[in-house]
Amino acid sequence: MLQQDSNDDTEDVSLFDAEEETTNRPRKAKIRHPVASFFHLFFRVSAIIVYLLCELLSSSFITCMVTIILLLSCDFWAVKNVTGRLMVGLRWWNHIDEDGKSHWVFESRKESSQENKTVSEAESRIFWLGLIACPVLWVIFAFSALFSFRVKWLAVVIVGVVLQGANLYGYIRCKVGSRKNLTSMATSYFGKQFLRQNTGVDQTS
């Protein structure tokens, strides 16, 4: 079962029925989905390698650009639809209702006593390391291309930042909750800090 977080109501939805049979397995450090773990890193790392070595691999800018964008597109689809669901039990997506209104949905497995048995610690580390590190590299590439006046590469780098940044943002929303929850947490935290500094009394919830 998953907990669905959208702009409307919150409800439990069953999207991981195929994996519910594995909930009785103990949580282990080993990689339970080696193929998903491989492709979680393969496309994004390959795109970075091609970008760094493109001038050595090919003299054609168009060939390198198309290759990088294809790798980034495959990575976006794989991470958004497959590896996040299998490796950490998270998924985000968009749907349009009957009135034509767009809804963003951020889903995560419902917390339970069995949750720790369904997620591999090794896979979780691989997932979040790849998800965070690669967008940071593309941001560095963007500044490098900008300051070195490599204008033709700037568009390619922006595609990398947007596609991988979108997945990072989506999964962070899945992990920590909706924007409303984040705002409430931040307001509560700063309120406690303000009261502590001015009155010496900690606010209790």
From TrEMBL:
**Which keywords are on file for this protein?**
Membrane, Transmembrane, Transmembrane helix
How is this protein annotated for GO cellular component?
Answer: Golgi membrane
Disordered: where is this region? 1-21
Mind telling me which residue stretches traverse the membrane in this protein? Answer: 35-53, 59-79, 126-147, 153-172
Q: Where in the cell is it found?
A: Membrane
Q: How does it sit in the membrane?
A: Multi-pass membrane protein
GO biological process assignments: protein secretion; vesicle-mediated transport
Q: Which Pfam families match?
A: DUF846
Family membership noted in the UniProt record: Belongs to the TVP23 family.
The name on file for this protein is Golgi apparatus membrane protein TVP23 homolog
Q: Which organism is it from?
A: Pan troglodytes (Chimpanzee)
Query: Gene symbol?
Result: LOC455050
